[in-house]
Amino acid sequence: SGARAASVSADNTGLKRGGSGEAEGPRIQDAHEAIRPTDVTIDPESVREALTREQFRLYELIWKRFVGSRMAPSRSETLQIRITAKAGRDYLFTTGTSRQLFDGYRAVYEESGAEEEKNIAGLAALTEGSTLSLAAIRKQQHFTQAPAHFTEASLVHTLEEKGIGRPSTYAPTISTLLARHYVTKEGRSLFMTELGEAVNSIMKSSFPEVDDIAFTANMESLLDLVAEGKMEWKEIVRNFYPDLDREVKQAEETLGKVTIADEETDVVCDKCGRNMVIKYGPHGKFLGCPGFPECRNTKPFFEKIGVKCPKCGSEVIRRRSRRGRKFFGCENPECDFISWARPSEVRCEKCGGWMAYKGDKLVCQNSTCGYSCEAEDD
């Protein structure tokens, strides 16, 4: 990675010289220019001493990705291995490995997963008819999982695949969904709310032509033609607006008022004695008295995570700091338990202490223990 761009051989890597730089396929990346080096001959190693560690890593990432984007794809040879075994019946095991034939962009930019290929490269030494010795058998049971909830990243990726929106509209789209409480965000996952389901149902039934992926993607393409001066915007509106106007008027006549029932809690209003309900405000959920406007009492909403406090046995709740960072604390105001990591009901097998989630592992929070184990799916 320390070699200058000028010394990267076009013969070994397929470095492209010149070219229009236009991407193939749907034009979904036209809204913003990419971040790229102003002088590609200034490689990261040549300026390492002048940069902080963070600056160097950022520049190295930008430089490598840009240079890699102008190079040819890598080529590899894949080897499929089939292993037969007999133990009362015939069993077939399969595995595979690959061998790099042409580095291409990997000469400067190594993607994740490449190291795994190197680790299994020894399989290529096997020959047909080889006899293998059994070292161990590991049994694993897998169950079909429901599709994962969208994260912000996976939602943007899906929008790109469908040709919906542009880079400049992805963030505002997600922000609007959250601000209007059509979806909520738990961790990194997005969950549709009851309000979101109601709005989605109305859109599908009352505006079927507008609430359509193909229609939206086609509209984006037409707007691209307007931006290029190949089509008049009035022509698009002239063809689109009459149908939309008719559907809006029809919806106004047929649709009634949609009421979303408040979710009642076991928290009692200390002013009137009613059970308080969950409301939505500009900053998220809060508890409000159902007696509004006679009773205007409100309280912060703290979500219980179903785990008992390791100190006093009360419920652990999810809270937010003044800067908006999530943390976990005890609902008992007299208890000082607090944790940035989500606590688990599982106790440490080694010392009996409480454990918390760290990635896909459970880690004992006793600083003198250090025990960890794989976390089971919730």
User: How would you describe the shape?
Assistant: extended
* Oligomeric state of the chains present here: single chain
Number of helices: 8
Stretches with pLDDT under 50, minimum 5 residues: 1-13, 16-25
CATH overall fold name of the domain at 152-256: Topoisomerase I, domain 2
Count the strands? Answer: 16
Order of strands in the sheet with the most strands?
5-6-7-8
Q: Tell me about the biggest sheet?
A: 4 strands, antiparallel
User: What is the second-level CATH architecture of the domain at 152-256?
Assistant: Orthogonal Bundle
What is the rounded Rg?
29 Å
Q: How much β-strand is present in the residues?
A: 15-25%
CATH superfamily of the domain at 152-256: Topoisomerase I, domain 2
- Structural category: alpha+beta
What's the CATH class label of the domain at 152-256? Answer: Mainly Alpha
Calculate the terminal CA-CA distance, rounded to whole Å.
42 Å
| Pattern of helices and strands | HHEEHHHEEHHHEEEEEEEEEEEE
Helix fraction, binned, reads: 25-40%
Kindly report the average pLDDT value. 81
Compact description:
The chain has 378 residues and is of the alpha+beta class. 27% of the residues lie in helices and 24% in strands.
Kindly describe this structure:
The chain has 378 residues and is α+β, with helices and mostly antiparallel strands. 27% of the residues lie in helices and 24% in strands. The protein has helices spanning 10-13, 53-69, 114-119, 152-162, 167-179, 194-206, 213-227, 233-254, and strands at 75-86, 90-102, 183-186, 189-192, 263-268, 275-281, 284-288, 298-300, 303-308, 315-320, 326-330, 338-339, 343-347, 354-358, 361-364, 372-374. The longest helix has 22 residues, at 233-254.
